[in-house]
Every structure is written in structure tokens, then in C-alpha cells.
Amino acid sequence: MSPNWFDVVDGTWPAARYERCGPFLLREGQGGGSRVSAATGLARASEADIDVAEAAMLAMGQKRIFMLRPGDEALDAQLAARGYKILDPVNIYACPAKQLTDLEIPRVTVFTLWEPLAIMREIWAQGGIGPERLAVMERAEGPKTGLLLRHRDKPGGTGFVALHDGTAMVHALEILPAQRRQGLGQWAMRGAAFWALDNGAETLSVICTKANEGANALYRSLGMEIVGAYHYRQLV
Length: 236
What we know:
The protein is an alpha+beta fold. It folds into 2 domains: 5-90, no CATH class; 93-229, 3-Layer(aba) Sandwich (Aminopeptidase). The protein contains 7 helices and 11 strands. The chain has helices at residues 5-12, 47-59, 73-81, 118-126, 131-139, 184-198, 213-221, and strands spanning 17-21, 24-28, 40-41, 65-68, 85-96, 110-113, 144-151, 154-164, 167-175, 203-209, 225-234. The strands form 2 sheets. An 8-stranded mixed beta sheet has the order 4-11-5-10-9-8-7-6, with helices on both faces. It has a 3-stranded antiparallel beta sheet with strand order 1-2-3. The longest helix is centred in the C-terminal third of the chain and has 15 residues, at 184-198.
């Protein structure tokens, strides 16, 4: 049975608080980005329902933003008519974790550890992943780890992996510019796969914006398949 991919997203990259608001589930992100701040629909919404949800998001000090998943076409059309613009269409990739354990990872290339080291926090910060997103990682309640990547005896990148309901999901994978095109992305995913199996997860997954051509090419090259997709709509 396939996992509910949106439950996996919430379980591995959780909002600070969830609140039911009529036919919507609201997320309080506390600055952690769209994924932990977007409202999602639970049932058919009227225009008045959307008004109430908008007011609640503004009261949280957040932008008016909704996540649109398969089946949300009616809400998507309502938001478009209100002037909401599409933001960051996303692919969800997955594969059996054992699929990426066929090669031995070179020594001192991938380390799995939690809490993150200072160098990991520095690499994330350089990639725009600051304290608010690190707080999201801290909130993940299941098994989790950081990835520290090295190449030629120097730090190369970092990432975060968390587990929910038998599925491991990779987030915040960041490779230093000077260390790109060295295969570190591949080794990061393979390291995450070994960690996933060691922690009881049979499936490895990752989220990627459709605009990130390099990352999409990486995941396809590893034989990962698109298992879900979504996009946001935000009122600017």
C-alpha cells in the first residue's frame, strides 16, 4: 500500500502548530517556509470559508498561501479567480530504499549524525536555510538524521532525513557551490538510503521543485519515480 505522501511531508517536515478552520487545515510555520505555512483543503470550500481562512492566516502573521494537491481542482480555480498566483510546483520522488544500496559509499564521504554540527548549520545558512527551518527539523518527532558530506577532505554539503510511517524523506539537501558536479548529491541519497533501511524504512523519498532541473535529473538518474505533485497559490 502506497503511503499518503502528504502525511509523510507533514510528519517529516512539521509545522509548529495545526489548526482546523472550517474546511481547511491551517499551519503555523513560524518563518519555516511555504511547506509549513500553507493551508490545505479538507472539504469543499465556499468563498466565505476562504475569507475566514485568509483572515486566520493573516492573524498568524503569515502570507495567504494554500497548497493544492490532486483533487483540489475546484479550490485551485477559486483561488485563481481571486488573483492567487501559482508558486513552486513540486514533484515528490520515491523508490525502494534498497535500490540505492547497491554501491558501497566511499569512505569519509557521507556521515549520518544528529544534532547537526556547526559546519552543517553554516552550509545550510549559505543556502538560505536558516534558524526557522532548522527549527522545523528539530520538531520532527520520528527517527531523523543529518547528512554531512565530504569531498577531498573538505566539507561538501549537508542534508536532513526523517522517517514517518515506514518512509524516509530527504529535505534541505544543500551542496556547496565549489563542491558541485562531484557526485555528492548521488552519495547523499545513497547514504540516506542506507540510514533508512537501518531505521526500518523500506521507501526513500524526496521533494523537488519542478524548476530545479539539476535535482530532477539527479533523482531520475537514480531510478526514482514521481509519485506525487503539488503546487502553491499565494496572494501577493
